[in-house]
C-alpha cells in the first residue's frame, strides 16, 4: 500500500508541480529554428503565454534572460498519432482509452473524455521536446497511438452487430489535440478529426475485400446525408433503418460536409490512389496516415493537396500492402510538395519522433523540412497553423532549448516552455533513478521501498 501511495504521490507531483513562469522572458543567443526559417544568434521573447517577438535584437528591459549561446531553440515538437494522456499500459484495459468496440459508439467515440493529465507518459514525452500531441483512436491495422502492430487478424472483426449496426464500424472515432504542460487541463481541442482504416484493415471490417469497404463507405456517407436532411422524420421513425446509431450519424455530419478531416490509415500505393479518388467523389477533407508506399504515387498525393502522417523508418514489408516501403519515403513525398508530419513509435516512445526525423534526413529529407514535419506541419495539417508549432509573434509560447542538434539522439532539452510556463525537466523514471541509484539504502536503514 505504501508503494502504491508513493507512486500516486509521484504522479501528482509531476502533473501539478508549480510552474516556473516569469511575466517577461527572453531566450537569447541561440540558433533559432522557427519551423519555417533559421535565425542565427536569435532572440525569442515570451510574455503572458505568447511569443512576443522572434528576431536578432537585444532582450527587453526587465526581462528574465535565458542565455542560449551555443544552443538550439525550436518550437515545441508536436506528436501525431500519439496516445499520450489516453493510454498508460496497453495490456491493462482499464488504463487504455484509445479504442472502443461498442457497435453503437464508433464514429462518435471521443478520446478527449479519457484523457489523464496525471499520466506518467507526459513528462517522459516532454523530456523529448514534445509540447503538444494529436491523440488519435486506435483501430485494427493502425500503427496507432498505442504502437500496435500493423498486422490485421480475423479476430479483429466481428461483422454485423446487434440491431443491424456496423460492428466494428468503418470509423474508429475522433481525435483530439492536447498540450503537455503540467496541470489538470491538457485538452486544447476535442473532435479535431475523424479516423477510419482502409487497406487490409478496412477490407476486413467490410467483409474481406477492399471493394466491399468502398461501397460500404459510400453508402454510409449517403445515410449520414439522408439523416442530416431528415432529422425530424428520423425522430418519428419515418426514415428507413440506418447502419449507424444516431450518435455516430451526428458525429459524421461534419465529415460528410467536408468540415472535419478524415484521417485514413492506408499503406499500399494502389489503395492510396483509390482513397484519393473516393475523397474527390465524396468531397471530403482527407489526411493520409501511414502511406508506406506513398513515394510511388507522390505526385498524385501532392496534386490532391492531401497531407501525410508517416513514420519514415517503416521500411520493411510486414505484409503485401507494404512490400514497397522504403526509408526515402519522407524525402520523396516532401520533394513532390506533399505536407508531411513525422510520427514517433507509440505512447511510451513518442519522443523518438525526432530520431525518426533524423533518419529521414539521412535518407534525403532536408533538415529544415524534418524540423517542419515535427512542428509547424502538424499544426497546419490539423487546422491550427499559427497557434502553435512555430516561433512567431502571437503563437503559443511553446519553446524548447536544446544543448545540440534536436535530431541527434544525444541532444537533451535544457529548458522548455509550454504556453509560456517553464516546465520542470523531470519524470517518474528520473525520480526512481535518483531514489535508487545508491542501492536505495539510507545509512543504517531499510531500502526506500519500505520507508515512507
UniProtKB/TrEMBL annotation:
All residue ranges annotated as the Amidohydrolase-related domain in the record: 353-415
UniProt xrefs under InterPro entries: Amidohydro-rel (IPR006680), Metal-dep_hydrolase_composite (IPR011059), Metal_Hydrolase (IPR032466), Metallo-dep_Hydrolase (IPR051781)
Gene Ontology MF terms in the entry: hydrolase activity, acting on carbon-nitrogen (but not peptide) bonds
Keywords of the record: Signal
Signal peptide: 1-21
UniProt key word Transcription: no
UniProt protein name: Imidazolonepropionase
